[in-house]
Amino acid sequence: MAEHIKTIVDEYIKKSKEKTKQYKNIKKILATNLNKNTTKQIRIEFKKNNKIVFFLRSSSAVYGFRLQEKEIGKKIKKEFPNIKEIKIEVE
Fold first, then answer.
1. What is the value of pTM for the model shown?
2. Which residue from 47, 32, 42, 29 is spatially nearest to 91, judged by alpha carbons?
């Protein structure tokens, strides 16, 4: 039974490291396209079915993101071809 638990924990850690790497890569893409204040206003969530949701906390962040939306989308889809949908929501 201990081996089974160890396998589950190892798989969880591996998936967690992969998600962290994806998160950092997306943050890097955002940092290259948006100013520092706008990137602070964005929260990223990975959803099931290969979706990314950007939660924007202010109207200025929404405006800045919308100006660069196509370029950011292209870079994210190039980096992560398995991503099917990118959504934007305001908090």
1. 0.78
2. 42
* Residue 1 pLDDT exceeds 60: no
Residues of 11-45 as b/e, b for ≥16 C-beta within 10 angstroms? eeeeeeeeeeebeeebeebbeebbeeebbebbeee
Cβ neighbour number for residue 72 with a 10 Å cutoff: 19
Residue type for position 35: N
Q: Which stretches of 34-58 are DSSP H helices?
A: 36-40
Q: Is 58 helix (H, G, I), strand (E, B) or coil?
A: coil
63 burial class (0-12, 13-18, 19+ CB within 10 angstroms)? exposed
Is residue 18 very low, low, confident or very high in pLDDT (cuts 50, 70, 90)? confident
Using DSSP's 3-state secondary structure scheme, residue 89 falls into: strand
